[in-house]
Automatic annotation (TrEMBL):
Protein name (database record): Membrane-bound lytic murein transglycosylase D
Residues in the signal sequence: 1-18
Single GO MF descriptor: lytic endotransglycosylase activity
Keyword annotations: Signal
CDD domains, sorted: LysM, MltD-like
Highest taxon in the source lineage: Bacteria
Amino acid sequence: MQLVRKFVVLTAAGLILAGCQTNQVISQQPAPVSGPDEQPQAQRQVLNPTLSSDTQQQPQTSTDLWQLTRQHMQLDLDHDDPRLQAQFEWYQKHPQYMQRVATRASRYYYYILGEVLKRDMPAEVALLPIVESAYDPFAYSHGRAAGPWQFIPGTAKHFGLKSSWWYDGRRDIVASTDAALTYLQQLHDRFDSWELALAAYNCGGGNVSKAIRRNKKKGLATDFWSLDLPKETRVYVPKLLAVSKLIRDAEDNNLTLQPLPNKPVFEQVELDSQIDLAQAAKLSSISTQELYQLNPGFNRWATDPDGPHRLLIPADTAEQFRTQLAQLPAEQRVNWARHKISKGETISTIARHYNTTSAVIREANKLSGSNIRAGKYLLIPSAKHESSEYSLSQSQRFSRKQNQLAQSDRNRVTYEVKQGDSFWKIAKNNNVSVRELASWNQMAPGDPLRVGQTLAIWKADAHQGLSRSDQQLIRRIGYSVRSGDSLYTIADRFRVSINDIQRWNKLEKSKYLQPGQHLTLYVDITEAR
């Protein structure tokens, strides 16, 4: 395919925002290619592709991104194959799913579609995150794939996506989109087919090449539909084609898609230092949750001190954010705790206490090693607000997952990883599946375990994990609430925790017990009184 680099034209002339970056797309003049670290000056603009290089008349700008997508589709969406038809029928029968995904995509679609069109790629590529992650930047698969484009660690590293305690580039909307589109372009150059490039994105270029060689030896066709590919890949490409076809023919299939305005949702704002994300949200007059949704690459309460030094800020408040940020000294952008070193403390134990890393403490205090002395002081960057304020940080997502599990009929057991442990061994010893164990801990089965690491295991019932003799002492009893009873008095009487009573009976913390209300308790008969 001939790659034609084009720019977007500006519909409101002269409105240039210095220092902001949205995405530039297509214009009559070819544009120089920016390297991964080069950020072109941006403009507040709409996506306005031209008809062709030899056409003098500019087309009318589409005000709806779905319509713009339809105008730039390039793939064969009407191929006669049962796999495509089966996938199309599934999406056709689940319009609510498509509407939910479209709503989730609304934050990111203007940027991603613009990047796709800027590279003269089929508009269908902008719909690929629907298949990969349902446009959820926090999606994490059992195969260790993360982010809207579902990069696995090895591929992410190959394409320069940074990963640290603070930050995961696989979830960064800007960085992961650049990497994914670059990868797809390389695969297209290799196979000269978008269908084969998409297949290779899913199962790897080596598998596609092997399938092509097998068919050539047999004298068979080597297009996607003719190849013997892995089962998942054989339906992966049809899924994207089916989604694209349904969006193309939405009206004919009674699918109502909320219009997506053809205007920037966010702007990229450059930073010169680390900043607390709750403070950044306040400067831009949005919630911390909204800031995380625009910047899902950040794992913790602040940006990575080693970069990337940028934030995506809503377009409507970006200028306000820049103004207020410029007035805030760098040393006030994160909190600093003054910690007096106690006897026996190490940098690692202090780091765990403050929810940070040893490297951050060493860097902040200009320490070359790990030797510290009792009685001395350390300066430690810390969050400005309660942990609950950072609602989509990695730790809070984990806590929310645990709280959801606590509402089920399972019981939580904490396990400390020992030398020689593996997911398979721990799962087998606790009678749970490897995939469940990994999911409970926001990990994948292939992720490495560290000695001393704590895992949450959710048992199916209160009897699991006890010895046979101990199981004989546990009784499931029914209890009728009496006048004057409270969760505290009942928990104290049967020597169980209030949290356990709430979990076993799915009680809301704000609700009072009523006389005659029936409760289920799991009681150790040697402890109850």
